Amino acid sequence: MKYTLYKYIALAAVFALAMSSCDDFLDKPTKDAYNADNYYQTDDQCISGVNYLYNSPWYDFQRGYFKVGEVLSGNLYLGNSPYLNFTVNGSDESLVNMSYSLWAVIGHSNTVYNSIKGSTGKLSESVRNQCLGECLAWKAMAYFYLVRSFGEVPIVHDNTASLNAGDYNTYPKVKRSDVYEYILMTLEKAMELLPESSAAGRIDRYCAEALMAKTYLSMAGISGELNQSYLDQAADHALHVIENSGRSLMENFSDIYRLTNNKCQESLYAWRWTANGNVWTAQNTLQSDLGMTGFDEFGDCWGDWTSPSIDLQEAFGVKLLEQTPDSWINATDTRLKATMMLPGFKYDYFWQDKGGFDYLRFIYDDTYYASCRGELASSTGANVVKHLYGDAYDHQQGAGHSATYMNNSLATHILRLSEVYLIYAEAKLPASQGIDATTSDPTAVACFNAVHQRAIPSASPATSFSWMDIWKERRLEFALEGDRWYDFVRVSYWNPTFAIQQLKGQKRNALWGLNDLYFGYYSNGSWNVTNSMGYDTNTAEPYVEGLMKRDPDTGKNYFYLPFPTEDVTFNPNLGSNVDGVHVDVRATYSYE
Fold it and tell me: Which range of residues forms the domain containing residue 349?
């Protein structure tokens, strides 16, 4: 049974899903094993009672994470997907699940927060505050996704109060600027409560502050023009995290995505999945949707046709029909190989028990993989690397326990320290210059270089950079990490023309004839491009304006997604033709 937004609110108000251990991010026991009167009585119960906010309520967002973030943005090719051609509507299953997942996070965060706040147990003040802060930090992240995805959304401050008032089916949408203000208010309280440092993998004060920096950067164009004061706030908070958190970038880019580094210090916010085998929804299932058939032993991979787009490949400098494999095999940007599989790529961290993973051999050699397909399935000539853990042996080696069917423990990093560096760099660009901005500010340049030179160790340090440099750097650094669409959204606030042109200028279609090219290269080392190979120019560019809405205050169109149809039926105030109302957030809501 699917739950509407309001059923999630009601469900979360009745009970919060508790954990059975504070040693890992384990998920819920049966509902009748817990109620607010007999839980949250000790520090251990308090910590374990927050753990599931790191995974379970987010589970149904996983497909929306890459379909919205990457297919819609032109980074990922997915056949005739409505996210590829901009025809997604309110009945789309992935969109519906994504929306309900985000409301579930908010509902449960509210309920756990109130349960801990009202607990009369013997809780230390430090643990009580830490857990309250974690609830608010996750609530803020859920709202951050909601406002950037759907635009104007309701504010559900307290589930129980809403149910008692009986007004949950009449909630109005709230203006985007006010939702952003609510996020900031929530993060301010989270930062007040959270410790400066916490156990590895848990959110601390600097993690919440990093999200605050990103929130200011996103809302900087909400008035229709870039707001210098918001950019200054983004820069100040980002620099505070960089200089005071004690965190640093991982030395090697690809190491971020290994199981052994699930809780690395570069990871600020992450879904901390666990394949504990006890509760469905506590686990990561992205490898199933993104990994090629047979990539693991569990029969749960079907991502052959979900592949990095031609446009993303070309952003990395790869042109399959104009270059030879040496061009990408010897690429200087280490992010390329860590993001997508291409002919000639081999991975020592996948299939370690078999001497490593060989991309073309996996496709064509039945002595290497007995059930090999024998032909290329990818329509773009590449397959996904990020979000894959490998085979059962790799999972055991990295996590110390087994994976099972659609069930792994690889963390999904949704806010990393490298982004804080790039937020600072971008925020130091003059607002008045827009997409033409440049800067040689020493600290901003140092932040840009830290990210760029980590990816390309041979690169000479830049002495200045432009807004367009940041635009590209963000794409390559966070490719396939569910965030690219939201860059288009925030830019559409203040420069919709640029965002539209960028999307319409992408190569979002397939290549044809690649199997003969790849098999020839695998068989005899020849790379023989013929007239039977080419890019699909027959499929028209998508009507990107179809997912835009006019802001009545600025007069500019911005990107948005429609609310689930069932929610609109239940509450017509959520319809796409209904504008949001203004709410004085600071006067209306409080966490005191």
Answer: 286-408
